[in-house]
Specification:
binds pyridoxal-5'-phosphate; alpha/beta; three-stranded antiparallel sheet
Length: 269
């Protein structure tokens, strides 16, 4: 038996997000990422989804009171260092989450999940303004993909130049650091992401992995950033490491039935 003092202390993180019954995205992807990267993951479920790799069939949101009960249960005993939010779905859940997190001193990664790869709405229209107003000001980092960035800025982002200026525009609008993910920019063989923290611009690019159509990559990316932040890396380091992690997880994708799943556990730290 190990002595108490010899046991490794594991950083604690929390994901506040939706489930995916297909096991590819949402809290399922987050927990696998946390486990692979050596942090202890707590979970606050915002909503349940009946989902598979092809489509989201139904969404059943938790009551805001139950979301708050889960938050209280976690924070009274576990004090996560870093928290990420994913699919929050409705305005009342966002309000409860934001007013709870405001009273803590956590580092917060906001993945502004709006629409799934399969085209399903994962954030109600009425919730978008609440997310901008209540959640973004608390964020250490917001991680929009191209479509989410375009929607949050109100204009399309068509090339690398616009991705870079879009990141700065986002910071000016919402006053929080942003990782603008350009993975789906047309005509590029590189997956380029831009981090703008209000002072410095960091570019991350790795070859775009073709021929596999995975889902849950956005969730996995923000979960990995969360894990690396909890391990003590700076924001720019955490993003760089998380990008390598996701890239390897996509490259190592495995076949599940007619679909693909990320290889969450192939990463050599
Ligand atoms: N389902 C849930 C519960 C999610 O949280 C997310 C993303 O955050 C998705 C689906 C969307 O994942 P993807 O766009 O990779 O299909």
């Amino acid at each position: 038996m190990q002595e108490e003092s010899e046991r490794i202390a594991m950083p604690i993180v929390l994901t506040i997000a939706g489930t995916d019954s297909g096991g590819g995205a949402g809290v399922m992807a987050d927990l696998k990422t946390f486990a692979a990267l050596g942090v202890h993951g707590c979970v606050v479920v915002s909503c349940l989804t009946a989902q598979n790799p092809a489509r989201v069939l139904e969404v059943s949101p938790c009551s805001p009171e139950f979301v708050e009960a889960q938050l209280k249960a976690v924070f009274t005993e576990l004090s996560p260092k870093v928290v990420k939010t994913g699919m929050l779905y409705d305005e009342k859940i966002i309000q409860k989450t934001a007013s709870f997190l405001k009273k803590t001193s956590v580092c917060l990664v906001v993945d502004p999940v709006m629409i799934s790869t399969s085209g399903a709405k994962l954030l109600r229209e009425e919730a978008i303004e609440v997310m901008k107003r209540e959640l973004f000001p608390l964020a250490t980092l917001v991680t929009p993909n191209l479509d989410e960035l375009a929607s949050l800025l109100g204009h399309p982002i068509l090339n690398e130049l616009e991705l870079r200026s879009g990141a700065k525009e986002f910071y000016e609008l919402y006053k929080c650091p942003v990782l603008a993910k350009g993975g789906h920019l047309k005509g590029s063989h590189l997956a380029l992401d831009i981090l703008w923290d209000g002072i410095h611009e960091y570019s991350y690019s790795l070859p775009f992995v073709r021929d596999v159509s995975t889902h849950g990559t956005g969730c996995t990316f923000s979960a990995a950033i969360t894990a690396f932040l909890a391990c003590g890396f700076t924001l720019s380091e955490a993003v760089g490491r998380a990008k390598c992690y996701v890239n390897e997880a996509i490259r190592g994708s495995v076949r599940i039935s007619r679909y693909y799943a990320l290889d969450w556990f192939g990463f050599k730290k």
